[in-house]
Every structure is written in structure tokens, then in C-alpha cells.
Design goal:
mainly alpha, binds MU-OXO-diiron, elongated, single chain, 5 helices, Ferritin
Length: 173
């Protein structure tokens, strides 16, 4: 059984993951409309992954006698300045999620909830991986600059990453 405090904090995390899923879906659609098919595939996949992150918390709450709620979320941006800005926004979003996960871990320690603490460790590792991947993409974008052929190659690489990621695993961010 989880405490009301943990349930409330997890519910907040559900909303964050749902918003990430919506933002990445919006980025996928924008990339599609701009002709970046690889990046679009990457973001469609990533949006699915964020929904999976949200669902895991749903099940954890309900499996521990709580009641997970579908969150109200704000609409994500419809368009983005450019390819580079998109990924900068991804890093900011992921850093926000990481901070929230760390706060959740603190709550679980304060509540002496070992089950929740154990559950959250998966998210701690996941966030480290996610931030690492998006930083690596941003480093490549720094090298590429405004070079169109470099962007073309990166787009292709992102598409390959999305195709190679097994079901339930990260395509990237
Ligand atoms: Fe579920 Fe990318 O944070």
C-alpha cells in the first residue's frame, strides 16, 4: 500500500510523462512536415516510450491499492524554430523530468517507502541514459552547424536508431 503523499507525487510524474509524450508526438509531426523522416520516426518512437513510462507508474499506483488518474495536460507547441531547437527543447524537458524523479526519490526516502524507492530506481537509470543520448545528438548538431548534408546524414542515423530499438526500449531521448 502506498501513502497518499507518494501517490500524489507519482500522479505529478504521470502528468510530466504524459506531457513529454505529447511534446515528442508534436515534434514527430513537425519533423514529418519538414521532410525529416528519420527524426520523425525517432520522435514517434520516443512519444510511445514516454507513454510507456507513464503507464508503468499507472500500474504501480493501482497495484499498490492506489487509484491512478488520467492527467489534464497543456497542449504542446505545434511548431519549432528548427531542427537544432527541437533537440535543445528535448534536453530541457528531460532535465525537468530528471529533477522531478530525483525529488520523487527524496519523497520515497522520507516516507520510508522501500517499494516506491525500488520502483523509482529504474527511472533514475533511464533518465541518465536519456540525457546522455540527447547530449550526444546535440554535440553532433554542434559539429554539423548549418551544413545541409550533415543534417541529412544525422536524420538518416536517427531513423536507423528508431528502427533498431527493440519494442519497449529507448530510441533515444
Ligand atoms: Fe520519461 Fe524521457 O522521460
Amino acid at each position: 500500500m502506498i501513502s497518499k503523499t507518494i501517490e500524489k507525487a507519482l500522479q505529478h510524474q504521470i502528468a510530466l510523462e504524459a506531457y513529454s509524450s505529447a511534446v515528442y508526438l508534436s515534434m514527430a509531426s513537425w519533423m514529418d512536415s519538414e521532410g525529416f523522416e528519420g527524426a520523425a520516426a525517432f520522435f514517434y518512437k520516443q512519444s510511445d516510450e514516454e507513454r510507456m513510462h507513464m503507464l508503468k507508474i499507472f500500474h504501480f499506483i493501482n497495484d499498490n491499492d492506489g487509484h491512478a488518474m488520467v492527467p489534464a495536460i497543456e497542449a504542446p507547441p505545434k511548431s519549432f524554430k528548427d531542427f537544432h531547437t527541437c533537440f535543445k527543447n528535448v534536453l530541457e524537458q528531460e532535465q525537468k523530468v530528471t529533477q522531478s524523479i530525483h525529488e520523487l526519490v527524496n519523497v520515497s526516502l522520507k516516507e520510508r517507502d522501500h517499494a516506491a524507492n525500488n520502483f523509482l530506481q529504474w527511472y533514475v537509470s533511464e533518465q541518465m541514459e536519456e540525457e546522455k543520448q540527447v547530449k550526444s545528438i546535440l554535440n553532433k548538431l554542434k559539429i554539423i552547424g548549418k551544413d545541409g548534408s550533415g543534417l541529412y546524414l544525422l536524420d538518416r542515423e536517427l531513423g536507423e536508431m528508431a528502427a533498431a530499438a527493440p519494442e519497449g526500449e529507448e530510441a533515444g531521448a
